[in-house]
Design a protein that fits this description.
single chain, alpha+beta, two-stranded antiparallel sheet, 2 helices, about 70% helix, elongated
Length: about 100
């Protein structure tokens, strides 16, 4: 399995190097409404877009994971409370009021 990860890493790295070498031309990058114009290599524009997309996707997944964990915690607490209540009812012989 380690060999497969290493092979995939090597292939990905070679691909990135090929993209970077073949797209070295300098382009003007501008954000139209803003008065910002940057001259940078085309491969840098590609890779920056990819990394911004990966970061945004990771944030979405992290938000969903936190929301799901919070929901699971609430459900576990609710289940625990209901099991305790059921156990108390069984101990009291089915009476709703606790015995004193």
């Amino acid at each position: 399995m380690r060999f497969i990860y290493l092979a995939a890493f090597v292939v990905f790295t070679v691909f990135c190097v090929i993209v970077a070498v073949s797209n070295r031309a300098v382009v003007a990058f501008s954000l139209d409404p803003l008065p910002v114009i940057l001259d940078m290599p085309l491969y840098l524009v590609f890779f920056t877009g990819i990394f911004i997309g990966l970061g945004a996707g990771a944030m979405v997944v992290m938000t969903k994971t936190i929301r799901q964990a919070r929901h699971n915690s609430r459900q576990a607490r609710k289940t625990r409370d209901l099991e305790k209540r059921l156990k108390d009812l069984a101990a009291n012989g089915g009476n709703d009021t606790p015995q004193e």
